[in-house]
């Protein structure tokens, strides 16, 4: 057959593993980001694919020749841009087994292992994070691994639209959106919510921007309550409120408990986007990130909670964790079953078919890489990883405070530091350009109150104290 | 840091590669699908994740202990169910490098390599398939790798909704859907289209089922034309027509050229879902699958074309290929740019940011596994792979025709054979159950004209002539 034999894979696989190990070991010999002109990589490809097989042993060096001087290195320990995506070598081992299994877990029956390992590890993680038992599969809700927080937001919105329809059995599914549905965010909410609102057919007009409390970048619950009341009075239908824990720009957090209290009278779905910050709840001292997420006596909790294992929890992209407190909510909105997907186990209701928790039908065995991380690092290792980066951020913030030419744009949050040049906007912009020109670090900018800010997000899998020294060398020069 | 060192990864990686090789080499010692009760795998997990790191060297045997007697083996050569997802060992080598790089290609600038390799290989593949140059990035359109044909359908619909809005700059994006939008499929179209219509907010009422031509399972273009005219007269807006090449149930194909001709007067987007069959266009003798896809003189072509590399093109899930003929169509519908995603290269317009071609923001370097397949097998190897399975289907069909107790439910298409018991529906259902009870093969059923049918889909990466003999032994017993 036109594939490798297992023995050919064995010897080539060793070569490729070595190539990965060598690349990671030598990554600091390269700049974080190469200066490359658009089209450079494409121009190295032939117009037509080759007719004949070429030796795979040469593939790693071919890839290096084509891309090695023309890329942005997300696994470089000087990568402090966006939020790092820490593809730990531990998680790659799990990914390898996942590829070997080649399972496709659209239905329980198409891979009981893929489905149930995902249920088990998301239940374990929910408990380790301190999520209420109602977020577990054991407790009537459950977690799933999505490709990204963007997709998690879209399916949460889909479930919310279904729940908000006057007759959920026929309303939204049969009729579609009416134009009256509204989704509530702030100017600091991640753009994926606006994208989800657009994809879901609501249009930009379906997105309502709630004011932040004065002097903060956090949703003002009184403003939310007022906007909800006004909208309902105007005949509009509040469908979903997104509360962010740890915004992308500055790490700000909306007051989740107050958001829940404001949303509850209107039956709006509350989705918590804690894509970056949520995993910090593994550490007791950072468990404040869950404030208001769990149901309190005499108050509802949130309906869905999302945090990314692929940002800061040592798990290679993609592995966005979405928990819901009602295991029927996503299938109610998303399930469609043609004859070729009919299945006795599905019909029994005794199993979860994760195809009904997402837009795609097919799905990889992503839980294996997460399980490998839990197994190989243990919760203690994960906490050490998170704490290491939080300590770097605290140390950087302290140095910035003590530096004449730099200042904090806001207090650091967990592993995120936002800073600027004391000399003003032009100096801040110049600082960002100079830092990125150095080659040893990569940072991204954002805006706070219309002014440029430099973000430093610690989170790389190999980022340690020595990389803070390099960064400080660059920033304080 | 709490991860493996490169050297630890090196030695563990060799172990894990060996585990994958051993599992593939020994897969036929297992049944394709274990008889397993729901909850079996979950019950083997502790309630809480462990505090301490455990040796990763023991992880492969742990995974085997937990899942080894409780799974469905998609890479078993007797897997002829659904459409096989052929996770070639060749593609896993590419996936390994992709994990090692850990790139996140949301923007061109966040990974020029991820972006441009994807452009280059989808351009090469477009040419190898015989797609018109307007489907390439070089030619003003372009390909992208989506996670699944379901997601490809959703983004195509999103682009179509945007294009159909009276003022595309503000219409759909600002206002959302109106309820007048209609999408056209047949009863044989994959359920992912119905799901996309629902997610996009159109509701089930937005989906119109066009009749098939008498005696076929292919869309009747006259019926489509009449339905479009009626709908337009009624004030409805035809947004998208989906033509399927190779339906999931039986491999039927809609007449694409006639569908295009009917849709053109109304400006409806034509999406071709060739998720399974499209890759067969690599072989000249199967290039009929592209009939009507390319633009003809005095006629438009289709707007988007989707085929899955992860079904039958030796590439591990997920790798669904979506080509569009207008590179601006998807970004026009999907692009949203907050300050933290602003980028000089993006603003220049000289690059493609693939985040704007999909729902998720982040994306893996999936093109590496596809490139590894093209490199390691060459087009000649891919053709041999496809032809091998088509030959198996032809041989099976011949045996069924000659057998007293079996008959074809329809003519075989490429590598798909639909058969039934001559004794009637009950015997067909019993045949499927008996075959799957044997353990050496796995088949799925569907319905044709309300009657049960047994599907045999050849496509496994290791499925060869000897597996036809096993299958025949089971079916003809």
Q: Would you write up a description of this structure?
A:
- The structure is a homodimer of 477-residue chains.
- Chain A is an alpha/beta fold and 477 residues long.
- The first copy, chain A, folds into 3 domains: 6-30 and 34-71; 103-364, Type I PLP-dependent aspartate aminotransferase-like (Major domain) (Aspartate Aminotransferase, domain 2); 377-475, Aspartate Aminotransferase, domain 1 (Alpha-Beta Complex), CATH 3.90.1150.
- Chain A has helices at 6-25, 59-67, 89-101, 112-129, 149-164, 171-175, 191-199, 221-233, 256-263, 309-312, 329-334, 344-348, 367-402, 425-438, 465-475; strands at residues 142-146, 181-185, 207-209, 237-244, 269-273, 304-308, 320-324, 406-408, 416-421, 444-448, 451-457.
- Chain A has a 7-stranded mixed beta sheet, sandwiched between helices. A 4-stranded antiparallel beta sheet of chain A has the order 8-9-11-10.
- At the A-B interface, helix 1, helix 2, helix 3, helix 4 and helix 5 of A face helix 1, helix 2, helix 3, helix 4 and helix 5 of B.
Largest β sheet strand count, sense and barrel closure of chain A: 7 strands, mixed
Fill in the CATH topology of the largest domain in chain A.
Aspartate Aminotransferase, domain 2
Count of discrete structural domains of chain A: 3
- Give the largest chain-chain interface (CB within 8 Å): A-B, 172 and 172 residues
In one word, what is the shape of chain A? globular
Q: What share of the residues of chain A lie within helices?
A: 25-40%
Structural class by helix and strand composition of chain A: alpha/beta
Number of contiguous helices of chain A: 15
How far from one another are the termini of chain A?
Answer: 59 Å
The main sheet of chain A orders its strands as: 1-7-6-5-4-2-3
Specify the CATH architecture of the largest domain in chain A: 3-Layer(aba) Sandwich
**Name of the level-1 CATH class of the largest domain in chain A:** Alpha Beta
User: What oligomeric assembly is this protein in?
Assistant: homodimer
The CATH superfamily of the largest domain in chain A is identified as: Type I PLP-dependent aspartate aminotransferase-like (Major domain)
H and E order of chain A: HHHHEHHEHEHEHEEHEHHHEEHEEH
Question: What integer value in Å does the Rg of chain A equal?
Answer: 24 Å
What is the averaged pLDDT score of chain A?
A: 96
How many β-strand runs of chain A? Answer: 11
Low-confidence segments of chain A, given as residue ranges, are: none
- Beta-strand content bin of chain A: 5-15%
Cofactor (chains A, B): pyridoxal 5'-phosphate
Organism (chains A, B): Pseudonocardia spirodelae
Family (chains A, B): Belongs to the group II decarboxylase family.
Protein name (chains A, B): Pyridoxal-dependent decarboxylase
């Amino acid at each position: 057959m036109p594939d490798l034999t297992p023995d050919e894979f064995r010897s080539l696989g060793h070569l490729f593993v070595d190539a990965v190990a060598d690349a990671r070991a030598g990554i600091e010999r390269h700049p974080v980001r190469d200066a490359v002109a658009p089209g450079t990589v494409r121009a190295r490809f032939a117009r037509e694919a080759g007719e004949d097989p070429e030796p795979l042993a040469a593939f790693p060096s071919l890839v290096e020749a084509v891309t090695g001087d023309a890329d942005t290195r997300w696994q470089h320990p000087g990568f402090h841009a966006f939020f790092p995506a820490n593809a730990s070598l531990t998680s790659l081992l799990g990914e390898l087994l996942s590829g070997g299994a080649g399972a496709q877990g659209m239905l329980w029956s198409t891979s009981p292992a893929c489905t149930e390992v995902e249920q088990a590890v998301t239940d374990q993680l929910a408990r380790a994070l301190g999520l209420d038992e109602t977020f577990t599969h054991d407790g009537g809700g459950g977690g799933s691994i999505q490709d990204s927080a963007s997709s998690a937001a879209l399916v949460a919105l889909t479930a919310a639209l279904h729940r908000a329809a006057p007759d959920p059995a026929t309303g939204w599914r049969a009729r579609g959106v009416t134009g009256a549905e509204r989704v509530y965010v702030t100017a600091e909410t991640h753009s994926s919510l606006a994208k989800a609102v657009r994809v879901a057919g609501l249009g930009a007009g379906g997105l309502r921007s709630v004011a932040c409390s004065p002097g903060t970048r956090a949703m003002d619950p009184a403003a939310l309550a007022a906007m909800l009341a006004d909208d309902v009075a105007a005949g509009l239908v509040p469908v979903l409120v997104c509360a962010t824990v740890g915004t992308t720009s500055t790490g700000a957090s909306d007051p989740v408990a107050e958001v829940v209290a404001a949303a509850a009278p209107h039956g709006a779905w509350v989705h918590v986007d804690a894509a970056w910050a949520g995993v910090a709840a593994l550490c007791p001292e950072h468990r404040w990130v869950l404030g208001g997420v769990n149901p309190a006596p005499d108050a509802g909790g949130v309906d869905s909670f999302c945090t990314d294992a692929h940002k800061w929890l040592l798990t290679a992209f993609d592995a966005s964790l979405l928990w819901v407190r009602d295991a029927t909510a996503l299938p109610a909105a998303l399930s469609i079953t043609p004859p070729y997907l009919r299945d006795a186990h599905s019909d029994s209701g005794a199993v979860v078919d994760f195809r009904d928790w997402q837009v795609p039908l097919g799905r990889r065995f992503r839980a294996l890489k997460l399980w490998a991380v839990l197994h190989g690092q243990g919760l203690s290792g994960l906490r050490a990883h998170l704490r290491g980066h939080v300590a770097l951020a605290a140390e950087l913030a302290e140095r910035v405070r003590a530096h004449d030419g730099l200042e904090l744009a806001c207090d650091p949050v967990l592993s995120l530091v936002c800073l600027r040049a004391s000399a003003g906007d032009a100096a801040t912009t110049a600082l960002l350009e100079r830092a990125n020109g150095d080659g040893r670090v990569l940072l991204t900018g954002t805006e706070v109150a219309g002014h440029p800010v430099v973000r430093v997000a610690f989170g790389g899998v190999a980022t340690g104290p020595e990389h803070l020294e390099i960064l400080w060398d660059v920033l304080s020069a």
